[in-house]
Amino acid sequence: MWIRRLTLTQFRNYRQQELLLPQGLVLLLGDNAQGKSNLLEAIFLLATTRSERAQTDGELIHWDALAEAQPVARVSAQVERRDGPLELEVIVVGRPGAGGAGRVLASKRLRVNGVARRQADVVGQLTAVLFSTGDLELIGGAPAERRRFLDVTLSQLDPAYLRALQRYGKVVAQRNALLRRIQEGAADADELAFWDGELARDGALLVCQRAAAVDALAEYVREAHRRLSGGLEELAVAYQPRLEGWDGARAGAQTKALAAALHQALTAGRRRDIAAGMTLSGPHRDDLLFTLDGVAAASFASRGQQRTAALALRLAEARFMTDRKGDLPVVLLDDVLSELDEGRRRAVLESLGEWDQLLITSTDADRFDGGPPAAAAMFRVVAGQIEPA
Ligand code: ATP
Ligand code: MG
């Protein structure tokens, strides 16, 4: 799939911008702090309804608009897909008088073909894979980074996953609040039964889908990494669910059997959970384990090795999405090529033709060896405005 038209209104440092994009490779060139990453963020927002880097939605609204009675940021796109074209729109509405020094309170409205829709009906209408410099955290960062990777990927592929994830998050928070009340003697441990059942049901769906995804991703990760590293090392990825008594052989287990196992783990761990004041088993504690030639990458890989591993994971993600969706995702590379050595850059560039549309940001076209690759289009980003280059 590909984006034919992108419109930004009061989004980040863009006042008003319409951009017509071609299929193929699109280069976005510009100095630091001009709006290159903001543009990719807008596309990613349309795909996932979330920003990869904003702490709050209010950050997305142009600062100058915050003084207005009703501050609003708007991103819309016409997307060409195998199933036909689609108009997507995300509107971020700030609370009146939301400006000032503190956080800006805002809510989001979503539309598909002009009709208001809920998040689960919007996420994944456009699929996108974003490569960013922060991807290093996928390998060396906290487990939450890797869970987010799984969640963002799977939510784009299956609305049922996103709905289960939303419910699950709420139930964990409620169960944790109850655990603390039990700890203080203000509630009874029997009250956990209801939440354990809820948690096991949605949690099992998450574990099942994550296990199947990692199964599929593992082969792509290995393959992509072999290409990037010249076959010098072998990168493996394994799913590590936080579920007592789990063994890899049960990766293909049915959701029902998993729900029973998770329910049992929750019941068995009640005393421990009450003492901790939080739920210690379940997919909100899952992790992925990356190993390079059998050695844990998070602890031992060099920065260059971690970067290559992260890149392989993103390439694998794009492949996986293509398989599951039957359509190619839009691929977004934010400044990552400039960080790579020549061989790796070439290997990434060689896989470029595979995608319907690929947007690359860079501070300088000279960063590409032998000049910029044959791009379908080249744009220059200057202070929140985009001009053909
Ligand atoms: P680099 O090459 O350094 O990565 P970039 O072109 O990717 O630069 P962006 O991250 O897109 O730069 O940010 C461009 C500018 O947008 C930043 O200077 C930032 O201060 C500004 N900016 C961010 N949020 C807002 C906002 N809500 N309103 C106005 N400006 C904003
Ligand atoms: Mg940037």
Condensed summary:
The chain has 389 residues and is an alpha/beta fold. The protein has helices at residues 36-48, 119-122, 136-140, 143-157, 159-183, 192-229, 255-268, 270-276, 297-300, 303-325, 342-350; strands at residues 2-11, 14-20, 24-29, 72-80, 86-94, 106-112, 115-117, 128-131, 235-240, 287-292, 295-296, 330-334, 357-362, 377-382, 385-388. Adenosine-5'-triphosphate (ATP) binds next to helix 1.
Helix-strand blueprint:
Elements: E1 2-11, E2 14-20, E3 24-29, H1 36-48, E4 72-80, E5 86-94, E6 106-112, E7 115-117, H2 119-122, E8 128-131, H3 136-140, H4 143-157, H5 159-183, H6 192-229, E9 235-240, H7 255-268, H8 270-276, E10 287-292, E11 295-296, H9 297-300, H10 303-325, E12 330-334, H11 342-350, E13 357-362, E14 377-382, E15 385-388
Parallel strand pairs: 3-13, 3-14, 8-12, 12-13
Antiparallel strand pairs: 1-2, 1-4, 4-5, 5-6, 6-7, 9-10, 10-11, 14-15
The structure holds adenosine-5'-triphosphate (ATP) and magnesium ion (MG).
